[in-house]
Design brief:
The protein is of the alpha+beta class. It has three domains: 210 residues, Transposase Inhibitor Protein From Tn5, Chain A, domain 1 (Alpha-Beta Complex), CATH 3.90.350.10; 70 residues; 88 residues, no CATH class. The chain is built from ten helices and 17 strands. Strands 1, 2, 3, 4, 5, 6, 7, 8, 9 and 10 form a ten-stranded mixed sheet that branches. A three-stranded mixed sheet has the order 15-16-17. β3 and β4 form a beta hairpin.
């Protein structure tokens, strides 16, 4: 992390769910890309504002972002010192009490607003334009102050209006940034999503490293499964009660007063339906009383058959470290070819991959290790590789463990 500290003004934190298909009983997590709840392990990755990975923390039993964020930022603080860093995260971290804690700990934040909110009148939206890293960005935004926690927490809300009139509210503690920059930094989360997608496809991020398991805390609290079953029964009982009440109301509405002019007469005529309705009320009350006696959370060891385990993390963390270092080196190479390759944003990583996979010849002399690479698939890509080799030669790097100077060149095209 210290080597990548130049881009720590904003930190992007997001959870990556690794699905598990083995035989061990693991806690389930919601897999957004599959829209399913499956046995999994959740890793929380921290990336800098350029999308480069800094470190990763494995959550105990898929704990949510609200619980993990203070632990993650405790790892960040020694690296940034007293500097005030802005943390960017999605709706999974929405918690006004958490916001108070972040501010007290010296962090600012950017996140999407969660839950219901009052729509902003369209007349309050204005066009905001700015340039970031040579790119012109334009948003229709409304900027306003909001209060949470009964008015004790004052924050800023920047709402974006899309072309289809959809409103996206962003909540932040930063009042020094322009509204356009607030929106830009929030929407830049796509860099981290692209990072996850790229590492899954090119670096096998989700690969199971070993089959080992290690003991987990059997006293860890989990939602009471008996209470969850009663919740389902209560929902069904409530639906039955609503159905019977609607039927009873319809009968009252359609009652012919010529035959049953009084309520007493109506009740006598509908005695069977009335008994069903009263029975449904009693059943619902009993279910609620049973649920009230049950604790909301219980130790996982009391509701799990067999040992409470989790997947081993040591080797996974080691391989993650290697993959992070490889990704960062690849990113450095992409940055180096940028002056010579116009389509770096679109094809930079693909070109670097082809360079690293290129064939070549090795020649060892008394003082040098000469690496002569084969030409690439096209002349303009080969010229980029030649420029990169010239730049590496100027570094005068030595092959590790020897006194041989590394010399790079590209074989002439036939």
């Amino acid at each position: 992390m210290a080597q990548r500290g130049k881009a720590l003004g904003f930190l992007y934190v997001d959870g990556h769910v690794r699905v598990y298909h083995g035989q061990k009983a693991l806690p389930k997590a919601h897999v957004a890309r599959m829209r399913l709840s499956l046995p999994a392990t959740t890793d929380y990755w921290v990336n800098d504002q350029k999308g480069e990975p800094l470190f990763v923390v494995t959550a105990e039993a898929n704990q949510g972002l609200c619980r993990m964020l203070p632990e993650i930022l405790a790892e960040v603080r020694p690296w940034v010192g007293e500097r005030r860093v802005t943390v960017v995260f999605d709706r999974g971290g929405w918690s006004p009490k958490l916001f108070q804690r972040l501010l007290a700990d010296g962090f600012d934040f950017l996140t999407y607003r969660k839950g219901r909110f009052r729509k902003v009148p369209r007349l309050q939206f204005r066009l905001h334009e700015t340039r970031v890293q040579g790119r012109r960005i334009r948003y229709l935004l409304a900027d306003q102050g909001i209060r949470l926690l009964e008015g004790s927490l004052r924050l800023r809300q920047v709402t974006r209006l899309s072309k289809n009139d959809h409103q996206t509210p962003i909540v932040t503690s930063r009042r020094d940034l322009s509204a356009a920059i607030v929106a830009y930094r929030m929407f830049e989360r796509w860099r981290q999503e692209n990072f996850f997608k790229y590492l899954r496809e090119e670096f096998a991020l989700d690969a199971l490293i070993d089959y080992a398991a290690e003991p987990a805390d059997p006293k860890r609290n989990v939602p009471n499964p008996e209470r969850r079953r009663l919740d389902g029964d209560i929902r069904n009982a409530r639906a039955d009660l609503q159905r019977l009440a609607a039927k009873y109301g319809a009968e009252a509405l359609l009652n012919e007063e010529a035959h049953r002019p009084t309520m007493r007469g109506f009740k006598i005529a509908q005695a069977g339906l009335s008994a069903e309705l009263k029975g449904a009320l009693v059943h619902l009350g009993r279910l609620r009383a049973r649920r009230a006696k049950l604790p909301e959370r219980v130790p996982v060891g009391s509701v799990t058959e067999g040992a409470v385990v989790k997947l081993s993390t040591e080797r996974k963390h080691l391989t993650n470290l290697v993959k992070m270092a490889a990704y960062q080196m690849e990113s450095d190479l992409v940055d180096r070819i940028r002056p010579w390759y116009r389509r770096t944003e679109q094809e930079g990583r693909t070109l670097v991959q082809s360079m690293l996979a290129s064939a070549g010849d090795l020649e060892v002399t008394q003082t040098e290790l000469r690496v002569t690479l084969a030409p690439l698939s096209s002349a303009h890509k080969t010229r980029v590789l030649e420029q990169l080799c010239r730049e590496f030669d100027q570094v005068r790097a030595m092959f590790p463990g020897t006194r041989l100077r590394l010399r790079f060149a590209v074989r002439p095209c036939p």
